[in-house]
Amino acid sequence: xxxxxxxxxxxxxxxxxxxxxxxxxxxxxxxxxxxxxxxxxxxxxxxxxxxxxxxxxxxxxxxxxxxxxxxxxxxxxxxxxxxxxxxxxxxxxxxxxxx
Length: 99
Known about the structure:
mainly alpha, Arc Repressor Mutant, subunit A, 6 helices
């Protein structure tokens, strides 16, 4: 669960501008403020199931954005390159990323 939590927070950092204001608020409440679905529902005068559906939709959108744009995947590859010391290897891997 912890890995999934970190993953979706990273995707949110990258793609949040593509979400509606309401989706951003719900994501922040659930994933960053650690509010329960019931607490979010009570705060917004909607049902718990509506909040659950919204969270699911938000995660699907974030996954879809990443599947299309692959920004997180590319950043992860580039981050791993920072550990590399061989300049020829770095150049080769950057070329692979760009292709």
